[in-house]
Amino acid sequence: MLRPWRVYEVTCPDCGRVYNSPCVSPAGPHLSRVELAKEFARLRKPLPRK
């Protein structure tokens, strides 16, 4: 069974932060990054290799 994507496993479309790097926003991850992680999980895309 595939586990869902975590928000820091996708590159942020707003600030460009890559895998395992927090967004530059003081409020936490950008909403677009959260939505992208949800969409990748919904599509069952394979997780990135570390």
Which helices and strands, and how do they pair?
Elements: H1 31-43
Task: Supply database-style keywords.
mainly alpha; globular; 50 residues
Structure in words:
The protein has one helix spanning 31-43. The mean pLDDT is 92. The chain contains one helix and no strands. With 50 residues, the protein is an all-alpha fold. Helix content is 26%, strand content 0%. The chain is globular and about 35 Å long.
Can you summarize this structure?
26% of the residues lie in helices and 0% in strands. It is mainly alpha-helical and 50 residues long.
Q: What is the residue-mean pLDDT, rounded to a whole number?
A: 92
Strand content: under 5%
Order of helices and strands: H
What is the makeup of the main sheet? none
Low-confidence stretches: none
| Estimated structural class | mainly alpha
Number of E strands: 0
Tell me the distance between the termini: 19 Å
Number of contiguous helices:
1
Portion of residues in helices? 25-40%
In angstroms, what is the radius of gyration? 11 Å
Taken from the alpha-carbon principal axes, the silhouette is: globular
Q: How would you classify the quaternary structure?
A: single chain
